[in-house]
């Protein structure tokens, strides 16, 4: 809740007129508690989990209209009822775990200093903090993900997420309840180390989930703008990890590729891409001349 009754009082306190964005923020948040503002995350996550994957559902249902060439694992096809079942499972976890976790985690947000007042952060401040958040989350998630692919971690927890060997957008948050809690740690570390404004925090939660949905889309679209992000993994990169499944010791990173490269956990993927390239160059009979990546059994389990 802002300590001002009017825009004029806020302007006097700041020594300047409020920007358009700050005026809108004042009008919306002035009489709302910080806790209420924080709980907006529940609504944002619900909308993201429910709406962002919908275009991918339509693409999956319209593969015969030309989208099939972008499918990474084209031999796998899911029906509308199967995709809807995944959504229902995700919503069950949302109601039982994700939502309650948001409700009870507010004290930690206050403790690290996420602010709701004026002035609002500049665009460059938001971009810089989001970059830091993504880097910290990616590095921490990498090691947790490697742990979850150990014998105990995979059998007891992570195997649930790998039930989808050909991932779909709705399956991005599909996981064991304990994995949902554990992977909340990397998401929280960035804001804890470099706390910012509540708006930045909202954007971080939203962008991270949208990114996860994209990497689980199952499609490698050539027009995806994330292709221009340096060291970004993307759908093709993470799809390989799901394809190999429980045996996978490759492509653990959640966002970028540098950790896998540095620690040598992308060798299987790079060998796999090299084999595909040779097959494409050597013969046109394999049907791999399109935007998708066709997988060949057992070849991706080897490395040089």
UniProtKB/TrEMBL annotation:
Q: Transmembrane residues, as ranges?
A: 35-59
On the tree of life, the source organism's domain of life is Eukaryota
Kindly list the places in or outside the cell where this protein is found, as annotated in its UniProt entry.
Membrane
Biological process according to GO: lipid biosynthetic process
UniProt GO cellular component terms: membrane
- Region feature (Disordered): 283-304
Q: Which UniProt keywords apply?
A: Membrane, Monooxygenase, Oxidoreductase, Transmembrane, Transmembrane helix
Q: Where is the Fatty acid hydroxylase domain?
A: 131-265
Record-level Gene Ontology MF annotations:
iron ion binding; monooxygenase activity
Q: Which Pfam families match?
A: FA_hydroxylase (PF04116)
Looking at the keywords, is RNA-binding present?
Answer: no
Q: What is its main location?
A: membrane
Similarity-based family: Belongs to the sterol desaturase family.
User: PANTHER family annotated for this entry?
Assistant: STEROL DESATURASE (PTHR11863)
Protein name per the record: Methylsterol monooxygenase 1-2
Native organism: Hibiscus syriacus
């Amino acid at each position: 809740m802002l300590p001002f009754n009017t825009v004029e009082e806020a302007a006097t306190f700041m020594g300047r007129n409020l920007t358009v964005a700050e005026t809108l923020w004042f009008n919306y948040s002035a009489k709302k508690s910080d806790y209420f503002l924080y709980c907006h995350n529940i609504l944002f996550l619900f909308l993201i989990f429910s709406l962002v994957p919908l275009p991918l559902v339509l693409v999956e249902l319209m593969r015969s209209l030309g989208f099939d060439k972008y499918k990474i694992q084209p031999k796998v096809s899911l029906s509308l009822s199967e995709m809807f079942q995944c959504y229902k499972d995700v919503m069950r976890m949302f109601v039982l775990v994700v939502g309650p976790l948001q409700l009870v985690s507010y004290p930690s947000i206050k403790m690290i200093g996420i602010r709701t007042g004026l002035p609002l952060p500049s665009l460059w401040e938001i971009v810089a903090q989001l970059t830091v958040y993504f880097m910290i989350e990616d590095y921490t998630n990498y090691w947790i993900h490697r742990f979850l692919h150990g014998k105990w971690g995979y059998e007891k927890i992570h195997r649930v997420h790998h039930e989808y060997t050909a991932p779909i957008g709705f399956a991005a948050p599909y996981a064991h309840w304990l994995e949902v809690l554990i992977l909340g740690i990397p998401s929280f570390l960035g804001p804890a180390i470099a706390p910012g404004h509540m708006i930045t925090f909202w954007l971080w939660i939203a962008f991270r989930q949208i990114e996860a949905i994209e990497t689980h889309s199952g499609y490698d679209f050539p027009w995806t703008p994330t292709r221009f992000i340096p060291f970004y993994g993307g759908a093709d990169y993470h799809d390989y990890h799901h394809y190999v499944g429980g045996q996978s010791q490759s492509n653990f990173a959640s966002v970028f590729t540098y950790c896998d490269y540095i620690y040598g956990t992308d060798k299987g993927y790079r060998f796999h891409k090299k084999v595909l390239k040779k097959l494409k160059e050597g013969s046109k009979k394999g049907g791999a001349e399109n935007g998708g990546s066709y997988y060949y059994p057992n070849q991706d389990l080897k490395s040089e």
